[in-house]
Amino acid sequence: MESLTPQEIRESFVNCSRADAAELPLPPGLHEVDWARREYLGWRDPRLPQRGYVVIPTESGAVGIVLRASEASMRSHQPTMCGWCQDVHLVRDVYFWSARRAGEAGRKGDTVGALVCGSFECTENVRRTPPTHYVGFDADRVVDDQIAGLGERVRRFAQAVVGARI
Ligand SMILES: [Zn+2]
Q1: Neighbours of ion ligand 1 (CB under 5 A)
Q2: Could you say which of 9, 15, 85, 129 would form a disulfide bridge with 122 (CB–CB 3.0 to 4.6 Å)?
Q3: How far is residue 67's CA from residue 112's CA, in Å, rounded to a whole number?
Q4: How far does residue 136's CA lie from ligand 1's centre (Å)?
């Protein structure tokens, strides 16, 4: 994805008030982010364990989304596959995150949800070379497909939150 300034990150949020966007904690280590190796930016709120934030690039610009993890999903440590990176090689906490939809739909209480890695580590997961017995010879191709798949799935999530093709 393209690099974003703190200001651009705050302005990208579509499902919270402008005041909330001005207050939300920025991702830790923002100056060290390797943007070329990211299909989206995601981070947890250090003060509110159930709160997460993602910024997803789309053709209409970056879309920032406030997420809330369901308590039940945070408590259960059942192996679950992340719906975004679809990593099946490492067992890790995957939470059910829900997002209020943007605009009128969100004001009426409409939400969109997804099972996603608890620490938003999808971008690292898709770059890991799968075990060779799993992929045959062309591991690079598998990694490229995983990266493209992640990009497509996060974009679809952003579309669902915004409620339009973007
Ligand atoms: Zn993931």
Answers
A1: 82, 84-85, 117, 122
A2: 85
A3: 9
A4: 23
Q: Is residue 15 part of a domain?
A: yes
SS3 152: helix
Q: Which domain holds residue 14?
A: 6-162
pLDDT tens for 29-87 read 999 999 999 999 999 999 999 999 999 999 999 999 999 999 999 998 778 899 999 98
Count the domains in the chain.
1
Q: State the distance from the centre of ligand 1 to the C-alpha of 32, rounded, in angstroms.
A: 21
State the distance from the centre of ligand 1 to the C-alpha of 165, rounded, in angstroms: 23
- Name, in order, each residue with C-beta under 8 angstroms of 152's C-beta and a sequence gap of 6 or more: none
Q: How far is the CA of 145 from the centre of ligand 1 (A)?
A: 15
pLDDT at position 135: 58
Q: How far is the CA of 94 from the centre of ligand 1 (A)?
A: 8
Instruction: Examine residue 31 and state whether it is found in any structural domain, yes or no.
Output: yes
